[in-house]
Every structure is written in structure tokens, then in C-alpha cells.
Amino acid sequence: MKLICFTCAGGNASFYDGLKKILTPSIELVALEYAGHGRRNREAFYQDFFELAEDMYENISNIINESDDYALMGYSMGSISAVEVLQLILKNNRKLPAHIFLAAHEPYTRKELVEYSNKKNDDQVRKRTIDFGAIPESLIDNKSFWRIYLPIYRADYSIIGKYRFEDLNLKSNIPATIFYSEEDTPYETINLWGDYFTEKCDFVKYKGNHFFINEHCSEIAEEIKNRLVTVR
Hints:
Blueprint: E1 2-6, H1 17-23, E2 28-31, H2 49-61, E3 70-75, H3 77-91, E4 100-103, H4 122-131, H5 143-162, E5 176-181, H6 187-190, E6 201-206, H7 217-228
Parallel strand pairs: 1-2, 1-3, 3-4, 4-5, 5-6
């Protein structure tokens, strides 16, 4: 069983290293890298999620054979990536994932983030990122850090802002599990994922900020194992 993972805004494939360590060898976690991030840092950023999804789908096509069992997982921005890739899987009649895991992102349009593509709003980009708990305290005032990562956050927030959940035409019977924190995304908004995953959609609540995975990595890994190991 392979677990194909899509990372958060500003993140790279190493975001999933902790989860990968726990899941191995029961499940093979494959964390994909966005263009402009991590080891692909010399590539141009995506202009929208459709461009991102096409790239990620091509990556998956090189990883997954028709005989492979696999699942998808997205964290925060990665949740949008995951559902858009799922759309392409359905469109191209590829073998479906056994399960989809989404975390830390409600199906809600964030139009205000489009403005973050403008450098004049860089202070807002910094504030949003810090408020989410994405930045260690030791790096908050580090100019070298922001020189590298500010353009990445700016680009990612911009395509999140362009994305319209109103246009997501998805009704799937693939089992879904949604991880969330009430402090980050209240249940009354996160449960809207049930409109898209109509057969079985479970919600698992944790305590913590947007990056509750940092404190609950072992518990999340156990939930994933419980849902995937039995699929084999």
C-alpha cells in the first residue's frame, strides 16, 4: 500500500518525514514535491491548482501501476491538491485510491488570499504564516529565512485564493477521513467535506493549532494504518 502525500503551503516533501518514519514498513509513504519547492526550487511556481494537479498527476502516473493499491493524503493546501488530483484520476479512468485523507483545510474559498501575490502585502503573508504556527520562533525575525521562503508562501497563498470550491464538481464514494482541530477549522465548516465524499466520510478531531500534526503524528499514523492495512 502506497500513501501519496501533498504538502502544505510553503512546505516541501520533508513535511511528512515524521509520519513516514512511523508508517514504514506497513505503508510506503511517498511525499510529492511541488514545483518551486524543496528539491524543485529552481522550477517556476504554479499559476493555479489545475497546473499543480496536472504536474502531480504526471508524477503519480510514474509511481503507481494499475496493480498497485494506494491512497491519497493532503495537509492544508495539500487537501486542495489531493481533490484536484482525484478529479484527474476519475477523468482518466485510472484505478481509484482505496482511501483519501484530508487535513487542516475546510472546503471554503479564500478569495482574500489572491491579494497576497502582490509584494506590498508581504507583511500580511508573514503574519498569516506566523499565526498558523508554521515558523519556529527562532526564525521569525530571520531575514535570510524570509528572503528564501516569502516568495514560496506568496505563490502558494495566491493559488489558494484563486481556487473556488463552488466549482468543485465532485461526488465520490471513496472512503474519506478528515483530520482537524476545532481551534483551527471548526466542525461546522470542516464537515462540508461530507458533501463531496458521500459514501463514508469520518472526522477525527485533535487539539492544537493549524499544524496539529506535529503533536499528534503518532495518533494520525495509527488512524491511517487502521484504515489502510485492512484494505490489502
